[in-house]
Amino acid sequence: SNGKSRNEVKASAFSFDQIGGQERAKEELVEALDFLVKRDKIEKLGIRPLKGILLAGPPGTGKTLLAKAAAHYTDSIYLAASGSEFVEMYVGVGAGRIRDLFKEARTKAKKAGKSSAVIFIDEIEVIGGKRDGGQHREYDQTLNQLLTEMDGIHSGESPRILIIAATNRKEMLDSALLRPGRFDRHIGVDLPDKKGRLHILNIHAANKPIDESVSMERLAEQTYSFSGAQLESVMNEAAIYAMREDRDTVGERHLNMAIDKVMLGEKTDKETSK
Ligand code: ATP
To answer: Which parts of the sequence belong to the AAA+ ATPase domain (predicted)?
Structure first.
């Protein structure tokens, strides 16, 4: 029932090596996070503090995992929210929730004795989408509140807050969000290539008895254009097929059926949403 505290527990144990592929994204993220880790030096050099990182890419590619690993890497408290949580019928409610989120991050970080907090906001385009004309923006209190909170972050303060936002519609974002001092670090999180798929498949096969005859290489080839989330599903569905057949190991057949199922599932999802 309490999703937030569950997320915090997970984040504390989650590291970059549990994320398959995404080597470039991981590298760029770590480089950005070092601004937080080495902040004494950053301050001495008079460099503007890093406040916001934007992760952009298709669904299920590991953006949430990257945010959790970022919290772990920087020894921060982790709080997660989704843009859609702030959409409310009544004016001001969304803005109030943004304020509460930042307050909660500061309180929890202090309580846990941490000097920083990572706030992850998924689906940022829901609150930070382009406004037509631009002059309506001042009435959008939720977005304004987020910008106000970000503008209020100072390099010297403790706990320091870092906002990581995710979107799969980067082109839809309002330019106010992307200005220097706001979400000015952009990291692309794309679908995995074959090597990345192999890595992800191996991560999700680690807790499963896979038949010796199975070629993970071939599996990685067969799953072209699959996301990390889909690859996780393939491994899980295959184990379910093995269980149904009362087998002790997951075989090639189960994996092939699982690939078909995940592909078909995607198709029906798209068709029904049309
Ligand atoms: P969305 O845009 O839909 O929120 P996302 O990019 O945040 O998606 P995650 O929530 O991080 O995706 O991934 C969903 C699940 O898919 C993860 O919990 C994990 O099981 C699996 N997964 C996705 N990407 C990877 C990856 N690179 N390595 C290992 N597992 C992955």
So the answer is: 49-193
Probe target for ligand 1 pocket from 200, 232, 236, with the most ligand atoms within 8 Å of CB: 232
pLDDT band at 269 (very low <50, low <70, confident <90, very high): low
If one residue of 16, 64, 65 were mutated to test the ligand 1 pocket, choosing by the most ligand atoms within 8 A of its CB, it would be: 65
Q: What is the mean pLDDT of the chain?
A: 89
Q: In this predicted complex, what is the ipTM? A: 0.96
136 versus 95: the higher-pLDDT residue is: 95
The per-residue pLDDT for 10 is 45
DSSP structure string for the chain: --HHHHHHHHHHT--GGGS-S-HHHHHHHHHHHHHHHTHHHHHHTTPPPP-EEEEE-STTSSHHHHHHHHHHHTT-EEEEEEGGGG--SSTTHHHHHHHHHHHHHHHHHHHTT-SEEEEEEESTHHHHBPPSSSTTGGG-HHHHHHHHHHHT--TT-SSEEEEEEEES-GGGB-HHHHSTTSEEEEEE-----HHHHHHHHHHHHTTS-B-TT--HHHHHHHTTT--HHHHHHHHHHHHHHHHHTT-SSB-HHHHHHHHHHHHHHHHHHHHHH-
Ligand 1 neighbourhood includes 83 CB (under 6 angstroms)? no
Residue 22 beta carbon below 6 angstroms from any ligand 1 atom: yes
pLDDT over 60 (residue 6): no
Q: How confident is the model at residue 136 (pLDDT cuts 50, 70, 90)?
A: low
